[in-house]
Design brief:
By secondary structure, this protein is mostly helical. The chain contains six helices and no strands.
Length: 125
């Protein structure tokens, strides 16, 4: 287990040191959406805290919305339809959480499950 903890800490350091905001957000969103699924037991909640911190520091709903939309575009075709649907709901809920704009169809899709099933970054409605 210790090598996994060390590797997770290394990944955290690399992400924090990343100067390109877009690349840093893409990495954090990838972890949040389980697209980069290594070491999730140590990285998932940390990534959520980092995304909240990024929003607090930059105040940019646009940067975060774009990062989540890029994350949605990374969903592999090989994912099952149920997994793809769950990821898209998590994306739209996160965009809404950060104050981004959704189309009526995206909002309807996002609300197709209750907030507590749609990921941590979800307004519980």
């Amino acid at each position: 287990m210790l090598p996994r903890i060390v590797r997770a800490a290394d990944i955290k350091r690399l992400i924090i040191k990343e100067q390109d905001v877009q690349r840093r957000l893409d990495q954090l969103v990838g972890i949040y959406l389980n697209l980069d699924s290594d070491y999730l037991e140590w990285l998932e909640r940390w990534a959520i805290r980092q995304l909240l911190l990024e929003f607090e520091v930059t105040g940019s709903k646009e940067l975060l919305s774009e990062a989540f939309r890029r994350g949605l575009s990374r969903v592999q075709v090989s994912k099952s339809p149920d997994d793809a649907k769950a990821i898209s709901i998590a994306v739209f809920r996160a965009i809404e959480f950060f104050g981004g704009n959704l189309s009526k169809a995206e909002l309807k899709h996002a609300k197709s499950v209750s907030g507590n099933l749609a990921g941590y970054l979800s307004l519980n409605k």
